[in-house]
Specification:
Blueprint: H1 2-21, H2 26-43, E1 47-50, E2 53-56, H3 64-83, H4 87-92, H5 95-118, H6 124-133, H7 140-148, H8 155-178, H9 184-204, H10 206-217, H11 223-241, H12 246-259, H13 263-288, H14 305-323, H15 328-337, H16 343-355, H17 360-388
Antiparallel strand pairs: 1-2
Helix pairs in contact: 1-2, 1-13, 2-13, 3-12, 3-13, 5-6, 5-8, 5-14, 6-8, 6-16, 7-17, 8-15, 10-11, 11-12, 11-13, 14-15, 16-17
Amino acid sequence: MLIELALALILAKIMDEIFLRIKQPPVIGEILVGIFFSLFVFFVPSEISFVNYHFSMNLDVNHPAFDFFADMGIIFLLFLSGMETNIGDLKKSGKAAMLTGALGVLVTFSFGFIFALYFLGFSMKQSMVLGTIYTATSVGVTVRTMMDMNILNTRVGNTILTAAVADDVFGIILVTIVLSVGEIIEIAIGLTVFFLIIYILAKYGIIEKIMAHSDNFLHTPFGLVSVAIGIMLLFAYFAQLARIAAITGAFFAGLFVGQSTQERKIIHPLRAIAYGVFIPIFFVKVGVLVDFDLLSHFNPLLLLILPLVFIGKIIGCGLGAKLGGMNMKESFRVGVGMTPEMEVALVIATLAYGSGIFSMAMGSAIIATTIIYVVISSITAPIVLKRLYRGKR
């Protein structure tokens, strides 16, 4: 277990550096480390004999400790996502940004749902989950491209940035509903109670007050960081009690902590802990879930979801931008800029795999398909954007 964690962390950071140098998302490098582990287990025997000596070649990447680090990576990822969501900007955002985020989620979900239900023969629940996986946008690649072209601070750039925040919020709500477990009545009660508590905490600023009192009372090193992590874990726990995904609780915990004045004191230590230890292990685990023993049963029809998602994002987000007052050219640019997906899509796919909604073979195939979309969208979106802005600066 220790050697697996050590190799995962060291190789992940080496791949991070390589992918940063070639101007590609580091996440892809971390996933490739996991795929390498999966290939190693697939091709290399668990034990090699040399003369009278036996050497173990087993990489136990399914050890509970490895899974714990990966699960914590998911929770930290959504917690930080919540902290970096600016509610003020979301409230002040124009109609175009809100409609772009909402219609982007709705159209993409509908395309995935209908395709899974009628073409893949999935059940209603499975179809909803597959549609949900591809709703969340990650505009990191788009932002970097637009910054390089000096067009980020334009109406299109600002709409994409704000719409991505709205997209995350709508996506998390959809995930909460789709990945809830239990009977319909239990889910309804759990959702009602959870969001009622969220409303009370927001109305009276309880978390912000806890953070302020902790800041005044605690003088131990990183005491405030420990309180923030404790709040994150409590929210995740109560979300599970309400029969909804733990990541929903972590996201809302991040929203509350991120609105406190103490946010600037803790964000860097939290990022160091999350991106230094837990989040890389999660993305390595994503790669490991591409099981080459199971991929022999891969259904090629599943790959048709890739162009559907790409088109769905362009149509949904572009339509939202158009209804928000943009012209056709600007709307199309917004749609293309919203096509990349990254962390949240992989989180939802991983949670779906672990929840048993799909068979192991289908779950592994969906993970592989999601990784393919992440890679393709990260490469194609900047190329298309540059062509759309050809001659402009």
